[in-house]
Give the backbone structure.
Amino acid sequence: GYDTGVVSGAMLQIKTASQGLGVLTVGEQEIIVSSTIGGAIFGSLLSGELQKRLLVGRRGAILIGSCLFSVGAFIMGLSWGVFSLTVGRVVVGVAV
């Protein structure tokens, strides 16, 4: 929930920034905002299997999630377009 609230405020800057991504269509904005939720759906399905099959337990799953979250934040920080920003948000969603 927090990320969705933050991105809605950030979209004001992202979609109009002259040095940012430029003018975004409504569809691009929707994809950027909802991609984290889509990644979270995939991550929630994956996490149970990860804990059972790799025997990493809760602590290992939290560690893997934290590493994925950091990678996703790094991708978003260096994003050069809508695609790279969406990929970063999906990775963060899987980590959530």
Remarks:
- The chain has a mean pLDDT of 83.
- Helices lie at 2-14, 26-53, 57-77, 82-95.
- The radius of gyration is 15 Å.
- Residues 10 and 39 are 19 Å apart (CA to CA).
